[in-house]
Amino acid sequence: MEVLRTENLCYKYEGAPGPFVLNDISLNIEKGEVVCIYGPNGSGKTTLLNTLCGLYKPSSGKVLLEGKDILGIDEKERFSKIGIVFQNPDDQLFSANVFQDIAFGPMNLGLQEDKVRERVDESLEIIGMTENRDSPVHTLSYGQKQKVAIAGVLAMRPEIILLDEPTSPLDPDSETRLLDFLKK
Questions:
Q1: DSSP for 55-101, written as a single string
Q2: 138-166 pLDDT, tens per residue?
């Protein structure tokens, strides 16, 4: 079953000189499929991810989520279906401590407090940071911040997870743990 599709997707930063960053991209992503996008710095990988989740509006073409134009889907519904982990966790984390940051998304879904706590604890277990549950975010290493950003997305339980270089700041054990989880 197709969950995400682009049709002739193009994107150009407003006012930027030169060609499109994304030019005529058509792809189909099926449920359960794992897709990796490789390319050099500046090739448009991050721009593509931001466009796929609806953060950027295509210059032309379409992004379809379950057959519907992503721009016509309510933001709350869209972000409950698609989770994105940014390349830099400092762009994603904003709460005072780990628990609050991971709990933010599930709380905004309107879940009851016990369900929020359950999702936070489960996500912390997956990323191997249970002992940091109450740690202030500003005291974490860069790799730990990346884990918290990943846990925040996992706690939302989206159908689609977009990850922008998620393993680059992780130690080998954490990288293996994350990749094993994603395979499941």
A1: SS--SEEEEEETTEEGGGS-HHHHHHHEEEE-SSGGGT--SSBHHHH
A2: 999 999 999 999 999 999 999 999 999 88
Task: Give the residue from 141, 95, 139, 140 showing the smallest Cα distance to 120.
Answer: 95
Integer Cα distance of 104 and 120 in angstroms: 10
Distance of CA 119 to the CA centre of its chain: 17
Residue that is written with structure tokens 């989740």 in the block: 53
- H or E element that contains 8: strand 2-11
Tell me: pLDDT of 95 over 90.
yes
Q: Which of 149, 155, 100 is closest to 122 using CA atoms?
A: 155
Indicate the pLDDT class of residue 175, thresholds 50, 70 and 90: confident
CA 119-72-83 angle, 5° bins: 25
Q: What is the DSSP string of 12-50?
A: --TT--SS-SEEEEEEEEETT--------TTSSHHHHHH
Amino acid at 46: T
